[in-house]
Write a structure and sequence with these properties.
It contains 2 helices and no strands. With 41 residues, the protein is mainly α. It starts with a helix and ends with a helix.
Length: 41
């Protein structure tokens, strides 16, 4: 199973598009990044 089929399976389980799933992960990662930067400054 490759990474795209895993994303498709998760997106299908959540009843959202693969694009929406990717956008959610990117937003979560950016949030964590900015929180970590804020904690270090």
């Amino acid at each position: 199973m490759n990474k795209y089929s895993i994303m498709d399976a998760i997106a299908s389980e959540l009843n959202i598009s693969r694009q929406a799933l990717i956008k959610t992960y990117v937003c979560q990662s950016l949030d964590k990044h900015y929180l970590a930067r804020a904690a270090n400054h």
